[in-house]
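In this section we walk through a basic example: taking a raw amino acid sequence and producing a predicted 3D structure, encoded as discrete structure tokens. The instruction is simple. Fold the sequence below.
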Amino acid sequence: DEILNEIYHVTDEPQTIPFESLPTSFVIKTGNKGVILVEDKEEEDLEQLLTECRSALESPYGVEKGEYWYGETDPKIICERRLYGKEYDIPIDYKFLCFHGRVEYIQANVDRFGNHTKSVYDRNWEYLDIEYNHPQGPPIEAPDSLDEMIDIAETLSDGFDFIRVDLYETRDEGVVFGELTPAPGGGAGRFRPKEVDFEWGQKW
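The resulting token sequence is shown next.
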């Protein structure tokens, strides 16, 4: 519980979202249609937000990329606390790729809503010359809570042959859980160099 974000509202009826009682800035998660960052609700077109939420609920989960397991999930709209990073306004999205309960690689996604880059490291935070799905970012300092996050990721990945565990190191709330996914990018991610695809696959 201590690493879960604060949730304000969960619904499958977007018209019930209590915008008047939500803070000025918050996040809307729409499942298979991504994340909507609301910086200032007073400047947002709330009807457009509702339209986007309805569209997400009407889109069958998992169909576009063949992720059949999402078809067993009831679509929901989740409004939750907006997080802030230690060095960046948007917290770095640390993605721990776990094979058989062990963190093997870590992706650091920086500036998710702007100049989105991704840098890749091994579990010892050694920078790897790999580009995967987004422009390759430069090396960055290891997060202060790296050991804690590896421990969390390996705890959550226990029992899975492969799972990606996403965590944030925030300015005010410490480590916060993002999501678990068994098929990053629907399994269609592109690697440079291509050999990395096979190297990672062998660990699975």
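Looking at the output, two observations stand out. The CA atoms of residues 25 and 34 lie 17 Å apart. The radius of gyration is 18 Å. In the next section we compare this with other chains.
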